């Protein structure tokens, strides 16, 4: 070993010991001929003193030292004078009196300063290009360490509960998981492609058929999706798990304790409800305007369709007559919103398809709104009373098709919660969203029925429901786990019956031949005694983002992509030479 100790471990107990430290020059200071160096490694900082009266050679060599040079220092641990003790540093009571200095490597001037506050000022693209320098920051190293701690804890939890960790293939087949696949051309099979797995869905179900009744994996997943603050483009990791001979309750009872333990051990948050609430999908949409509601605050949306169906306000009455709905959102203390803020909320509602955003402000018992003259004072006050609004509040209204109203008022609710400071980061509001619709109308093809969630879920009511019910009325044994407004996991009790699977895909427009072609391995396996099974897959990276109160999920990764799904450090994606393309039987079409 080049070093005897790390830079973060020594205290006054080591006084008088001769030690060798290795690390990076964090700071260099000259004080009247004496040179001080703060030496840094991932364990901390230690002050090193080069005194010409103690060792002229080491002092002379130290004069050339610059920021981020890599050095080894041998010297004696000494107590700092009382007025030079730094109580903010773990090693603040001691320093190293240098006797020998070895310069292990020099460094160019870093592209940005590594001081935490100053590093934030650096352009993100520069930090990503020089990620190997950025990773030297204490904050990022702490995140990497905590990520490792969380993964270790998860592994111990599942092993303790008799799960087996299995690594599933990376080169797989294309699957309808809801996002675009990353395709890998096959050199040995011209014209054919592997797909990087969006999730290990089929493989983990096949493991259940294989008798491995409790499986888990810290699984890499690949989806060609547009980036968001809470979604890393390209690749991410999920805590994939599956269990045989279970119903929904069994999966929930396995997952809830883990989430509670992780929250309490690795974040500063208090779990609001140790027994996670369970809210049906439709109820969540109506009450909170979202299938991933933030339950750290109330602001519940209420239907008022019956109350306004015969009112004189055409926007409300005509909407109801056309089969739509009218919902109201009371915001406590929202009467203080300015005209500009209400306009901003209106634009937000319009971004979700709303035609506008009606409102009534209550100021000292007076109602203020452009719609009062259409509703009439009496009806307006009835509505205000029905939603429990009082002086100082504002009530927003949405009138349109059910989904459009839910979505529009949902984003308004979310923004109001943010503006009013209701999103308490010291709280973790976990909730299960259950009873999802099995099908919905396709967004890509008008009139076509498509899966609304996971195509491999078991429909509630089984084959009979598929044969007798309107597809849009069929519910599935599907569930999402949500925390503080973020979807953490999807899961389901799986469809393990070939006949039910063929029928489920038939409703979504797939022929038997197409199902056999895409999912032949699963269909074949289910014909050889498949057990009832189910599971889920919490997103590891999003979970850590919430735990650590990060604004962007990129900080969870050692080597993240930027907002355009590029690795600026490795310069990828990149062009490849013509020889490689020929070997893969691929030709680039020029546009």
- Assigned CATH class of the largest domain: Alpha Beta
**What is the distance, rounded to the nearest whole angstrom, between the alpha carbons of the first and last residues?**
57 Å
CATH architecture of the largest domain: 2-Layer Sandwich
Q: Give a short account of the largest sheet.
A: 8 strands, mixed
Overall structural domain count: 3
**CATH-level-4 superfamily name of the largest domain:** Bira Bifunctional Protein, Domain 2
CATH fold group of the largest domain: BirA Bifunctional Protein, domain 2
Strand portion, in percent? 15-25%
Query: How would you describe the shape?
Result: globular
Number of strands: 24
* Share of helical residues: 25-40%
**Helix/strand class:** alpha+beta
Give the count of helical stretches.
Answer: 19
Q: Would you give an account of this structure?
A:
This protein has 591 residues and is α+β, with helices and mostly antiparallel strands. It has 3 domains: 12-105, Nucleic acid-binding proteins (OB fold (Dihydrolipoamide Acetyltransferase, E2P)), CATH 2.40.50; 142-277 and 432-556, Bira Bifunctional Protein, Domain 2 (BirA Bifunctional Protein, domain 2, 2-Layer Sandwich), CATH 3.30.930.10; 297-422, GAD-like domain (Gyrase A, domain 2, 2-Layer Sandwich). It has 19 helices and 24 strands. It has an 8-stranded mixed sheet, sandwiched between helices. Strands 1-2-3-5-4 form a 5-stranded mixed beta barrel. A hairpin with a 2-residue loop joins strand 15 (358-363) and strand 16 (366-368). The radius of gyration is 30 Å and the shape is globular. Belongs to the class-II aminoacyl-tRNA synthetase family. Type 1 subfamily. L-aspartate binds at residues 177, 223, 453, 494. InterPro entries: Aa-tRNA-synt_II (IPR004364), aa-tRNA-synth_II (IPR006195), aa-tRNA-synth_II/BPL/LPL (IPR045864), Asp-tRNA-ligase_1 (IPR004524), Asp-tRNA-ligase_1_N (IPR047089), Asp/Asn-tRNA-synth_IIb (IPR002312), AspRS_core (IPR047090), GAD-like_sf (IPR004115).
């Amino acid at each position: 070993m080049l070093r005897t100790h790390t830079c973060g471990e020594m205290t006054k107990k080591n006084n008088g010991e001769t030690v060798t430290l290795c690390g990076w020059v964090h700071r260099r200071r000259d004080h009247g001929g004496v040179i001080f160096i703060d030496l840094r490694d991932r364990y901390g900082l230690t002050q090193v003193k080069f005194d010409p009266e103690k060792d002229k050679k080491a002092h002379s060599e130290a004069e050339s030292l610059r920021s981020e040079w890599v050095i080894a220092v041998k010297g004696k641990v000494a107590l700092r004078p009382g007025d030079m003790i730094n109580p903010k540093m773990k090693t603040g009571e001691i320093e190293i009196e240098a006797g020998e200095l070895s310069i292990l490597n020099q460094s160019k001037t870093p592209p940005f300063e590594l001081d935490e506050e100053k590093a934030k000022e650096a352009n993100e693209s520069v930090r990503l290009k020089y990620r190997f320098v950025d990773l030297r920051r204490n904050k990022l190293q702490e995140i990497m360490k905590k990520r490792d701690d969380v993964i270790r804890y998860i592994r111990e939890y599942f092993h303790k509960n008799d799960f087996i960790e299995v690594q599933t293939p990376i080169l797989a087949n294309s699957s309808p998981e809801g996002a675009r696949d990353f395709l890998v051309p096959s050199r040995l099979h011209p014209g054919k492609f592997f797909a990087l797995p969006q999730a290990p869905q089929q493989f983990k179900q096949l493991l259940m058929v294989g008798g491995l009744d409790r499986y888990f994996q810290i699984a890499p997943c690949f989806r060609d999706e547009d980036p968001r603050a809470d979604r890393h483009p390209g690749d991410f990791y999920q805590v994939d798990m599956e269990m045989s001979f279970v119903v929904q309750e069994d999966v929930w009872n396995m997952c809830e304790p883990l989430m509670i333990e992780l929250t309490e051990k690795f974040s500063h948050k208090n779990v609001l409800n140790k027994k996670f609430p369970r809210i049906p999908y439709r109820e969540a949409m109506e009450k909170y305007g979202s299938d991933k509601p933030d339950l750290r605050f109330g602001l519940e949306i209420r239907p008022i369709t019956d109350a306004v169906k015969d009112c004189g306000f055409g926007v409300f009455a005509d909407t109801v007559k056309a089969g739509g709905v009218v919902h109201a959102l009371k915001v406590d203390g929202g009467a203080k919103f300015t005209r500009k803020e209400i306009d901003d909320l209106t634009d937000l509602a319009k971004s979700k398809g709303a035609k506008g955003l009606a409102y009534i402000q209550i100021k000292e018992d007076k109602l203020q709104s452009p719609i009062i003259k259409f509703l009439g004072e009496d009806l307006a006050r009835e509505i205000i009373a029905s939603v429990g609004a009082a002086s100082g509040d504002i009530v927003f209204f949405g009138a349109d098709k059910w989904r459009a109203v839910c979505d529009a008022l949902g984003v308004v609710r979310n923004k109001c919660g943010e503006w009013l400071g209701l999103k308490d980061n010291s709280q973790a509001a976990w909730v299960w969203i259950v009873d999802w619709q099995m099908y919905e109308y396709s967004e890509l093809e008008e009139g076509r029925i498509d899966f609304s969630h996971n195509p491999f879920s078991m429909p509630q009511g089984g084959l009979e429901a598929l044969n007798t019910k309107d597809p849009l009325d069929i519910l599935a044994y599907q569930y999402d786990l949500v925390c503080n407004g973020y979807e953490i996991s999807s899961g389901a009790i799986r469809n393990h019956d070939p006949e039910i699977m063929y029928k489920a895909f038939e409703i979504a427009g797939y022929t038997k031949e197409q199902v056999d072609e895409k999912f032949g391995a699963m269909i074949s396996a289910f014909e050889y005694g498949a057990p009832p099974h189910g599971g889920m897959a919490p997103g590891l990276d999003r979970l850590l983002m919430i735990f650590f109160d990060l604004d962007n999920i990129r900080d969870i990764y050692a080597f993240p992509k930027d907002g355009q799904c590029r690795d600026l450090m490795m310069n990828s994606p990149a062009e490849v030479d013509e020889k490689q393309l020929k070997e893969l039987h691929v030709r680039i079409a020029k546009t």
